[in-house]
Amino acid sequence: MLLALRDADSDPADFPSDAFMDEPDPATYRQARLSPNWRQWHKAIQSEIDGILQPDRADPVTAFPPGSTVLPSKFVFKLKKLTDGSLDKFKARCTTRGDMDRTFYEEAETFAPTPQLTTFRLLLALCLKHRLMPYHYDVSQAFLQALIPEDERYYVRFPKGYIHPKGYVGAYMKKALYGHRTSGRLWSETAHRFMTDRYPTLSRSTYDECLYIGWIDTQLFIVLIYVDDFIVACADELSRARFHTDIMSTFQATYSGVLNQFLQLRVDVQTETLPTGESYPTRIELSHERSITDLCAKFSIDTDKQPPRSPMAEGLSLPIPPPDTIDRSIETPLKSLIYSLLWLARTVRPDIYYHVTYLAQFCHQPTVEALTAAKRILHYAYSTREYTLGMTIDSTAPQLTAFCDSDHAGDTATRNSVSGYCLYFHGMLIDWWSKKQKSCTALHSTEAEYVAMSEACTSALAIYNTLTEFFPSAEPITINVDNSAVQTLVTQRALSSKLKHIAVRYHAVRNWCQGPLRKFTPVWIPTDDNQSDIFTKALPITKHGVPIIDKFTARLLDIKDRRVKLVEKLRAAEAQKLHAQQQQLQQQQRQDQIVLASLQRQNLIG
Question: Which stretch is the leader sequence (predicted)?
Fold first, then answer.
């Protein structure tokens, strides 16, 4: 109520200077003015507008020409925090309604590439393999540094409620503004020109256009561009200093040092120092601990209760509700929770990936049971929030090792099988997924395993091609399966007549596993050693509880150090208990000796 009584025209100096961290982000300019953080929001707004009205970016106008197309705009407010929960900055982004620009609606190209999360993890793995240090650069107002062609420029009206001190009502944009349909493409082309002009020795990956790899003065140099974030990996300090000078002189950018945060992920780079004074990474850990804590507060998870020992009950099968019984009131919270859990599972928590993707089918047909199951997954993630996706180079492991598995007719509603897959680069997990086999219904388990292996090879082949593009000596991929019949099917020359009804696209795996130019080497392993089993079904508590530390979770999340600490803690507790028992026994022996000596004295006296 106090916020509603505030004068919207109050001066920012009348508001407290300290930030209120628990305040929600304003949705409109008026809400920002009524917020107790108005002093900080006002500074962020002025900084954004000043950046837009720089002479080389836009021409301010006091009135729009008659008949011109004027696009509306709005402020998007975000209180940005660091991975430890502390305040980073108040950010106000002025965005336009680009969908209302009908001038180039049909013919304008709007595609702008962004890297896959697998590519990001591959970059970190290459840093560990080649002893490269990852550094982070952030380009401020990146889209506003991309030039718009003269025949595509447009007018923008300032957000509703905002009054410029000089009476400007909008601007004629010379450079791209956030929200326009072509801004992403223009910035992507600008960043690519920067890389090709300044670093012609670097090659752009054919399989991920945001990845650049090459050599500068015989030193390996890697750059990954994620919109306005530049991740630079190099071993030579002189090469990094050169890149620092180039990007600072071309764009308005900030240097964050060694990579410690990316897409709200906490990145912990552990290093060692050479006698020459140069450092190199020995282990990298990715975590989402703060995000999990924030999600629990958002969805009212009682973290004081006993946490579940597994993300989902074994064999859980939720019925699809009839259309006339769907409760639409829980659709929005269920979608929000599922999408948040999907982000966790896709980035750093592969141990909950299957469970989240299973519940994702209820986003458009929500049920109370699905919402309860999703909250259980979040509660489990909170109880294990200290788990990190650890990456440590294993020089004895093959370059690429894949695991694939399937659960035949695992979906009880559609009778479709479920495929699971994970990929390691020198012992470091870089890719995983779980999905239903929608294009076919397997008649028996061998067919399901055959389709799962084909899908797994397709995903692993993208990483293999990326590596061979820059490192020609890449080894064939070792793909592990727990079905010996599938191993025989993909290596024999004749195609079994029992598999001819399967779609042709799945038979490509046979070409990849045969001949002198084969890309995969299938290997049979026991089911207990198949790490992709966790991506096909909800495992029992005996597997997903403490014993799974040895079987699956330890390998997927690389929490061997924590397992060692747990064993040491248990051993210390046992030693302390034994020591207490020994002390109690010694005390009892001393008391017995005292009683015996007393009796002996009494006999002598008598």
Answer: none
How far apart are alpha carbons 360 and 349 in whole angstroms? 16
What 3-state DSSP class applies to 378? helix
Tokens of 61: 């106008």
Cβ-contact 121, 431 below 8 angstroms: yes
Question: Which has more pLDDT, 93 or 84?
Answer: 93
Cα–Cα distance measured from residue 171 to residue 347, given in angstroms and rounded to the nearest whole number: 40
Residue 81: which residues within 8 A CB-CB, separation 6 or more? 21, 87, 88, 290
Structure-token pair, residue 590: 């001393």
The Cα–Cα gap between 413 and 409 comes to 9
Question: What single-letter amino acid sits at 58?
Answer: A
Q: What angle do CA 412, 417, 419 make, to 5 degrees?
A: 130
Q: What is the mean pLDDT of the chain?
A: 86
Q: What is the pTM of this model?
A: 0.85
Average pLDDT over residues 593-598: 75
Contact 252, 140 (CB under 8 A): yes
Q: What pLDDT score was predicted for residue 514?
A: 86
What's the pLDDT band for 69 if we cut at 50, 70, 90? Answer: confident
Residues 153/96, Cβ–Cβ less than 8 Å: no
Maximum Cα interatomic distance, the chain, rounded to a whole number of Å: 128
Q: Of 386-390, 509-513, 552-556, which gets the smallest average pLDDT?
A: 552-556
- pLDDT tens digits along 22-65: 788 999 999 999 998 999 999 999 999 999 999 999 999 999 99
Rounded CA separation 312/317 (Å) = 10
DSSP characters over 234-280: ES-HHHHHHHHHHHHHHS-EEEEEE--EETTEEEEEEEEE-TTS-EE
95, 177 contact by CB (below 8 A) = yes
Sheet holding 400-407, edge to edge: 428-436, 418-425, 400-407, 477-481, 520-524
- Give the residue from 416, 411, 495 showing the smallest Cα distance to 455: 416
Burial (Cβ within 10 Å: 0-12, 13-18, ≥19) of residue 151:
exposed
CA dihedral 518, 519, 520, 521 (to 10 degrees): 50
Residues 6+ apart with CB under 8 A from 586: none
pLDDT value, residue 551:
42
Tell me: pLDDT of 74 over 60.
Answer: yes
User: Is residue 154 a contact partner of residue 183, using CB atoms and an 8 Å limit?
Assistant: no
